Amino acid sequence: MSTGRLQRELKKRKPFESLAEEAALNLARTSDRFAICFERLFRRHGLQSGSQYNILRILRGAGGRLPVLEIATRTITAVPGITGLIDRLEKAGFVQRRRCAEDRRVVHVSITDKGRKLLADLDNPVGELNERLLGNLSVAEKKELIRLLEKARLSLDGE
After folding, report:
1. For residue range 18-63, what is the model confidence (pLDDT) as tens digits?
2. 33 contacts 25 by C-beta, under 8 angstroms
3. Can you give the pTM of this predicted structure?
4. Start-end of H helices in the chain
5. Which residues contact 115 (CB under 8 A, 6 or more apart)?
6. What is the edge-to-edge ordering of all strands in the sheet holding 107-111?
7. Mutual orientation of helices 19-44 and 113-134 as an angle, nearest 10°?
8. Closest CA to 46 of 125, 128, 115, 126
9. What angle do CA 112, 129, 149 make, to 5 degrees?
């Protein structure tokens, strides 16, 4: 039996316990490698993480202010410390916070002009990085990858 690429990359002598294990580990390794590329790009533009970028994109897409908890439900990755992320974005001048007049427990966040400019500056480099990372896949393969990843996430429904 021939060894797969991941098995060779990891210098793993024994085969994986199952195809599910090999697929899950391939997904984790690919996700990690892609995340490193994006983190480097974001740091060159003054963001500390992909989560900060994601929050700014959510706010730009919303076209107005959003409650912190609503932002948390829209993030790509789970963000346990969203308040800290928003603190850092506010300190950098990328977002502003305001307490809701009707319910003081609710805090609304909006993107600033500085945050919009940062995203505009990142739009092309992010698009180019997406293409570089997945450019070796055909359109049909990208659609199939999307379909398979969405199908894999179905096992998480209800969690």
Report:
1. 999 989 999 999 999 999 999 999 999 999 999 999 999 999 999 8
2. no
3. 0.84
4. 5-9, 19-44, 50-62, 68-74, 82-91, 113-134, 139-153
5. 56, 59, 60, 89, 93, 94, 95
6. 66-67, 107-111, 95-99
7. 140
8. 115
9. 95
The CATH number, out of the four listed (1.10.10.10, 3.40.30.10, 3.90.1150.10, 3.40.50.10490), of the domain defined by the range 18-152: 1.10.10.10
Low-confidence ranges of the chain (pLDDT < 50): 1
Q: Which two tokens stand for residue 141?
A: 């393969």
Residue type, 84: G
In the structure encoding, which two tokens stand for residue 40, read together? 């480097």
Angle between helices 50-62 and 82-91 (to 10 degrees): 80
Residues 6+ apart with CB under 8 A from 96: 90, 109, 110, 112
Integer angstrom CA distances of residue 50 from 6, 85, 138:
25, 11, 26
Q: How many Å separate Cα 87 from the centre of its chain?
A: 19
Crossing angle between the packed helical segments 50-62 and 19-44, to the nearest 10 degrees = 80
Residue 1: per-residue pLDDT: 46
Domain boundaries, the chain: 18-152
